[in-house]
Amino acid sequence: SDPGSRFPLEAAQDLDIGRNSIQEYSISPENEYFSVSYGSHSENDRSVELTLKKPLDREEQAEMSFSVIAVDGGSPPRSGTTHVNIIVLDVNDNAPVFTEKIYVGKVLENSPEGTVVLSVLATDQDAGVNGEISYQLRQAVGQSDHPFTIDSMSGEIKLTRPLDFEAVETHELSVRATDGGGLSTVCKVLVEVVDVNDNAPELVVSSFSSPLPENTAPGTVVALFTVRDRDSGANGKISCALEDQLFFSLRPAYKNYYELVTVSALDHREEQSEMGFSFIAVDGGSPPRSGTTQVHVVVLDVNDNAPIFSQEEYIGQVLENMPEGSVVLSVLATDQDAGVNGDVSY
């Protein structure tokens, strides 16, 4: 109500007349919001009114009490008192207020549908319908459809589908709280997705040299590997190793690159012309996940073996009258090399 508003009261009754009848009214104790006036519209129509001196605020003081005293003009004066109780009715002059400007919640990316991420809370100083609050969820500008819903009455924010840390690490939402009178306010909600170890390491061969000559020098780079893990933290920290074998080792190159190098000459092609082994990457998750790629190296022959006769000495006999072209004996030599390197001529 505006200052200056008037509220009529029933006048007191005094059976005396003239000066001995009612002369004035007062308020006790004095009230900062109201004053009392006693006017005369006509000789037979005297009115008593409470006048509002300053704006009311139900949220500060919803109820106040005081006495109105009527005093006559007799000597000595006599008075009468009535008790006035003022109840201040609410109007919707307060918007909802959130307990936090920004709410931050964390949720595991493998949390099931229906998981409660966090709850927002807004209060409204108004009463009744004006103080009843409902919540609505809005996605931030530029973000795709978010996997959240909000309980309009409780303010609980829940998942509508599983999250994916590797796709979106933080979801930004806004929640609007609206009271029964239509006033509203907005807060920001940040949902941080917590990574779980749901990705195995991935291995990609960037370059690979095969076949290799069997006289390849130790320290030769045979292959270059890239390893990565889409998880974060310990879940994405990778260690690499080779299966036990004698001819190759693994060494870090830079960042997430590894080199496969020879540690000894491949001079045993005659015993093993092809080599197959595994390159294994393991992350630091609990439990850990691993990725494996197979490496297959073909060893090329070099001419590192001389022909060898089947005997150190051959003994044959020939009759002195045998004709030309008669077979006296046969010799045999073999060569462990392959291809033309193993072809023997006599």
UniProtKB/TrEMBL annotation:
<dbReference type="GO" id="GO:0005509">
    <property type="term" value="F:calcium ion binding"/>
</dbReference>
<dbReference type="GO" id="GO:0005886">
    <property type="term" value="C:plasma membrane"/>
</dbReference>
<protein>
    <submittedName>
        <fullName>PCDB1 protein</fullName>
    </submittedName>
</protein>
<keyword id="KW-1003">Cell membrane</keyword>
<dbReference type="InterPro" id="IPR015919">
    <property type="entry name" value="Cadherin-like_sf"/>
</dbReference>
<feature type="domain" description="Cadherin">
    <location>
        <begin position="204"/>
        <end position="309"/>
    </location>
</feature>
<feature type="domain" description="Cadherin">
    <location>
        <begin position="12"/>
        <end position="98"/>
    </location>
</feature>
<keyword id="KW-0472">Membrane</keyword>
<dbReference type="InterPro" id="IPR050174">
    <property type="entry name" value="Protocadherin/Cadherin-CA"/>
</dbReference>
<dbReference type="GO" id="GO:0007156">
    <property type="term" value="P:homophilic cell adhesion via plasma membrane adhesion molecules"/>
</dbReference>
<keyword id="KW-0325">Glycoprotein</keyword>
<feature type="domain" description="Cadherin">
    <location>
        <begin position="99"/>
        <end position="203"/>
    </location>
</feature>
<dbReference type="Pfam" id="PF00028">
    <property type="entry name" value="Cadherin"/>
</dbReference>
<keyword id="KW-0130">Cell adhesion</keyword>
<keyword id="KW-1133">Transmembrane helix</keyword>
<keyword id="KW-0812">Transmembrane</keyword>
<dbReference type="InterPro" id="IPR002126">
    <property type="entry name" value="Cadherin-like_dom"/>
</dbReference>
<dbReference type="InterPro" id="IPR020894">
    <property type="entry name" value="Cadherin_CS"/>
</dbReference>
<keyword id="KW-0677">Repeat</keyword>
<keyword id="KW-0106">Calcium</keyword>
<keyword id="KW-0732">Signal</keyword>
